[in-house]
Design goal:
With about 200 residues, the chain is mostly helical. The protein contains eleven helices and no strands. The C terminus is likely disordered. About 30% of the residues are buried.
């Protein structure tokens, strides 16, 4: 038990250091939970980033470039990470559709010379855009981005306070925020103070 506590404590110290290093905040709480919890649009943007990053295969440079953009944005990190993990687990189901769409785009007469020329660029092969699944999944992610944003925004506008309260009272939320297990459960008033 003592060893497990040491590992958890080291992991939390590492994440705190990453938070300070990235310049996102000097506060551990804002790395995952509080940052981007101010508005429903920040939460919805986290869902969109997670969707696109989750869909694109991870042996390409694209999800990592999108991840940097995600970290630099004001989108909520926790919703993006959760959405990305869930979408990644189910992304293999979309691969046949991605392959068909990517194949159509890559063999389209108008784009074929352009992609052939871009393939000679220094970093372009690392993006693996010549792969039909990578191209198709990226395009599907872009096509779904706006509808998913609007749907997420409408749901979050209605249920954001309930989601926020549930997060602050959950075990995972309390662990991320560093609230001791024996401490009383935080209320909405507490969460509002933390977010300020």
């Amino acid at each position: 038990v003592g060893y497990k506590r040491q590992v958890v404590a080291r992991f939390r110290r590492f994440l705190r250091a990453c938070c300070m290093f990235n310049g996102l905040s000097d506060n551990w709480k804002s790395l995952f939970a509080v940052r981007g919890f101010d508005t429903s649009s920040q939460l919805a943007m986290g869902v969109v980033f997670g969707l696109i990053i989750g869909l694109v295969p991870k042996d390409s440079l694209i999800p990592y470039l999108l991840g940097v953009c995600f970290l630099l944005s004001t989108a909520n990190l926790l919703t993006g990470i959760i959405t990305g993990v869930i979408v990644s687990l189910g992304s293999k189901l979309v691969d046949p559709i991605s392959h068909q769409l990517g194949s159509y785009i890559l063999t389209f007469d108008l784009f074929e010379p352009t992609f052939a020329e871009m393939n000679a660029w220094p970093l372009f092969p690392w993006t693996r855009f010549e792969n039909t699944v990578v191209m198709g999944s990226f395009v599907i992610g872009l096509l779904l981005a706006y509808p998913v944003y609007r749907i997420s925004l409408s749901i979050l506008n209605r249920y954001r306070d309930l989601i926020k309260q549930s997060f602050y009272q959950s075990r995972v939320g309390r662990w991320i925020l560093g609230i001791p297990a024996e401490a009383s459960r935080p209320t909405m008033a507490h969460s509002e103070v933390v977010s300020q």
